[in-house]
Each structure stands twice: as structure tokens, then as C-alpha cells.
Design a protein that fits this description.
Blueprint: H1 2-17, H2 20-30, H3 38-61, E1 68-69, E2 76-78, H4 81-85, E3 90-91, H5 93-109, E4 115-117, E5 141-145, E6 148-149, E7 155-156, H6 178-184, E8 206-207, H7 209-220, E9 225-229, H8 232-237, E10 245-246, E11 258-263
Parallel strand pairs: 2-4, 9-10
Antiparallel strand pairs: 1-3, 5-11, 6-7, 6-8, 9-11
Bound molecules: zinc ion (ZN).
Length: 264
Amino acid sequence: MKLFTRILITVILTIVSQIGGALYLISIVLIPKKSNSHIFKRASVFVSLYLLFTFLIIPHIAPIFGRVKIEDSKTLESHSFFYKLLNRNYVRPELHDVLITIAEEGRKANKDFKLIYLDANFPFIDNFPLLPHLSHNDGKKIDVTLMYQNKAGVQTNLKPSRSGYGAFVEPNEVEFSQTHFCKENGYWQYDYPKYLTLGTPNDELVFSNDGTKRLLTSILEVEAVGKIFIEQHLKARMSLTNDKLRFQGCGAVRHDDHIHFQIK
Ligand SMILES: [Zn+2]
């Protein structure tokens, strides 16, 4: 039973943070069971090691393996501290340059604009997926948020949901509903990010057609950008046509809560 629990904890920590499982095993080895209050000591060692590696060591090691930590700035920010705490904020240097370019472009039209990112990639190992995204496994992919405005029509950098996922910009009655189509065809998982919001403290915000169109246009203009995933009804609503704008397939999940893009 104890072995099973340890394996389970190791697997979960590895899935959410990549390095957490290995550091958990190291903390078991460092603090033997014989010592008094070993569970408390182990937990302390694990937390200390985890924070040390996450914030001080890995940002320096990752570049050796071809990935860099996204450097937050006035114009580029993680939507939640958890993306940084869980090492989900690494990209290839080329993608980092692209993010800076897009963020600076956004400032030209709106001096308060911030490019807000969600899940990127883990620091190490190609083909190691950053679940639940199967494709975020090579440092070339990232999710960024849509743009919103408040009821007065003023653009804001706030987002409806706490995680940045799961607050959908639903199609209206006349727009094509990809979600309806996919679910009708048996893809039950297509809208499951609705369970991943972690709460919607700003659900009064409305989708900014202009702001999101401007953001998407600046992403499209970057030569290094390959595919972009955005839901069909939003693409039509913003009158955007471009070969880079693709449908991710019913086997994935809906993209009317965020934008996914990747470099070539
Ligand atoms: Zn994505």
C-alpha cells in the first residue's frame, strides 16, 4: 500500500511539474524512516528542494537542453503564478523571441497591453507531454489568452477564469458550433476544459473582438509562427482568413477560451 502511494505521488508530481516526482524520491532517500517525525522532515526537504530547483537551478540548466524560461516583463506575463511554480513556462529561444515581438507589437496599439500566457512547455526532454496538452512537448508550442473588455467597453488585461482556460466565448445562434458538431459525433471530451477554470472571478468580462483580432494579426505576421488554433466561429467573427489558422480536430478540445500557436 505504501509503495503504491509513493508511486502514485511520484507519477502525479511528474505529470504536473516534470521534476516534482524525482525530487520527491530524492527526499525519501535523504530522510530515512528511522528519524523522528520523518514525514514532516521529508515534506520540508521536498518543498525546499522543489523551490530551489524550480526558481534557482533549472532556469540555468534548461538552456543547455535548448529551452529557456519565459522572462516576465511589463508586456509579457504568466496568467497565474502556478504556471511558473509548476515549470510549465519554458520555450525554445526562438519562441521566446517571437513572444517578445508580439508583446511589443501589442503595445503599439494599446499602451497597457500585456501578452498573457498559459501553458507553454516543460524545461526538459522532447516528446515529454505537458498534460493535458499532448502537443506541448517540444518547446515550440504555447497557449495565450484572448483579449477582453469590461462592460464599459474598456479593454483590460484581466481574464474571466482563474486558470485562463474553460471560460468559453460561445457561438451565437447563427454561428457554426464546432463544439456541438464534435460532441454529436461522439467526442465527449471536446468541451472538458469547462472543468478547468478554477473559478471565474471576472465572468462579467466580454470578448474583445478588436483586441483579439489585433493580437491574432500580430501573431500571424510573425514569419516563424506555424499553426494557430482558434475556434471557427471566432475566426469568422473577426473576419480572419489565413492558412496558419487551423482546426485542431474534434479529438482535441475547443479553442474559444484561448489561442494556441506554435513555431515552425
Ligand atoms: Zn496549446
